[in-house]
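Progress narrative, Year 2. Work on TetR/AcrR family transcriptional regulator from Pseudonocardia abyssalis advanced from sequence curation to structure prediction during this period.
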Amino acid sequence: MGDDVKGRRGYRAPRRAEQAAGTRRAVLDAARELFLAHGYAATTVAQIAERAGVNVDTLYASVGRKPELLREVVETAISGSDRALPAEQRDYVRRIREATGAQMKIEIYAAAVAEMGPRTAPIFTALRDAAGRDPQCARLRTEVTRRRAGNMLLFAADLRATGELRADLTDDEVADIVWSTNSAEYYVLLVHERGWTPERFGAHLADLWCRMLLAPDG
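Result:
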């Protein structure tokens, strides 16, 4: 009988974990939809819970309160998964670091930015708008912006190590060029307002960065 009880418990544990993950996904999907539709300030936790089909206590246990919801929506949009992933654990970052030439590194990253754009640009735009009215949103936006800038410095150093960058550009300048042109604002201008496809945007970034950053004989 003891073995039978253990077997049932072993069966239930993965099922509970799967149910918890499904609840978390539903909560984050609901939060993302409502934040984008109505803005952070106008969206209530009760509305998110209702959209997700759970009660408020379950929502809190699954993800957290409203600031944690916003953070998780932002982080999962960046990572493209159900959980936040540090940059070094993302597949495209690994492929960039494994690539040997600057052009290949740039092309991998530009394609990744284009792939992320449809899910990250709307969230970053909503976060920017909310930051002007909500201190918690402002702090989160500042944190994400600084982290992006730091990651761009790492990318610049990786490109520099190939020996193919222009000598008249510092790593800070390279990072700033990449940081500004891979922004949600730039994506929105070309894709949402000018009707470019994400794929065209990615090809444009690769061409732009190669022309601007690489030495003529690189």
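The mean pLDDT is 89. The chain has two domains: 1-85, 86-218.
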